Amino acid sequence: MAASCHDVDPVPGKPTETGTSLLETATGAIQGFAPVNQIHQHLCAFHFYGDDMTRQVEAHHFCAHLTEDVRQCLIFDGPDAVARLIGLEYIVTEELFLTLPDDEKPLWHTHEFEVKGGVLFMPGVPGVVERRDLETVAKTYGKTIHFWQVDRGDALPLGLPQIMMALTRDGQLRQDLAECVEKKFGVSFQKERENRAYMTGPAHGIHPLANAAGKGLKTSIREVDLPDPTTRARVFT
Amino acid sequence: MASSDKKPLPTPASTGGDGGPPGKPTIMSTMMLDKGAAALQSLRPVKQINQHVCTFALYAHDPQRQVETHHFVSRLTQDVLQCPVYDSDDKNARLIGVEYIVSRKIFEALPKEEQRLWHSHAHEIKAGLWASPRVPETLEKTELADHMAGTFGKFWCTWQVDRGDRLPLGAPALMVSPQAERIATVLPDLVRKRDHKYSFSTEELKAARADVEVPADPRPGQADYWVRHHKGFAVDVVPHEMKRHARFP
Fold first, then answer.
1. What residues are paired with B237 via a beta bridge?
2. Complex ipTM > 0.85
């Protein structure tokens, strides 16, 4: 598999020692991994930063169904064993999205364009099978948070979490990134777009508050006074 | 727009009910599609996950709010680990965040501002709070003594399940680790509940780890900043101009 489409510094640290590796082989065999074993699907797509469309990331989603209407995905920067865990995404049906408070909706994005545009795909899965699920995905909303800014070459997950957005129209996706991914996975976004022309997005159309309410957003951090420790053992209401 | 320390407005997404995620149970055809896809895809990054750690975390903006966490760990190098974090270890577990773990050497090289977001692990390991379900203590102790007790973590929580959110709402929240100070102690009921579920004893784990070595200075640089300064951290998501090279949305 070709290298990442991003230029990232290697992860710092010595190569894994034999003793550590043996111990982890043992824990891998003895322990239970039920939540992670639910992950059944690999989707590749692109995200950009809520305050900067020009910074784009190839995002490999590894998804599980929590219920029929809610998925939760781990996002890695590549499909191979050395991939960095750079973020996560939650995906919900339109029906559930509509139950979100209005100040929450802007943190979520639509999937209609990236599915219909052919740029979101499932590596290794034949189009016919892939399309069956993508028909559903096209109608969903996602909330993506990244913690590791690999597109700026960070060797470690530095800084604040970033709320990410997804493509919503032609002209947004950087050509160099698109070509790199198409080549790496042997896919043609244009061909897929044609195959997916029949699909439809959310029944009620794209909600005006979704996709950062059509504007942009960013995260910031502040120090806060801590509650008095003597008011302990209260039930959170 | 959203803040990690503000409760969401009451809506079906934010009020508990039974607390489970909304939605119908996954239907058979979805499961079949999932299984079919899984058979064709290698899911390699996920297959690297080979450790399960159960411990506790506190919200950096309100350390009296605490959660039992389940970390599923994979290793990138001898000095860097990455973990999706769930609220339980069963198949219906909710993905509540991500933690990164680094060695002291890596931590000390971080810029000061960055270090404030990281917490030490020595206390929670010595106190028996950090546990590896199903792993015999003897096996666990070598690794802990050598590595984990001296590591530092950075943990972002994206789903505040303990306040009854039925979906992941709000800004991501910084989490911090249990410490010896009173403001950072884990509620006994949470520990009891965990011990009961796994039929082990945190007290016994603590005793078994009495001779696990911790560095003379367990809190280098700005680690555990919140405890020393009695200040928490809250994250806000605010409207901001999006730099763009094309129309949006």
1. A219, B2
2. yes
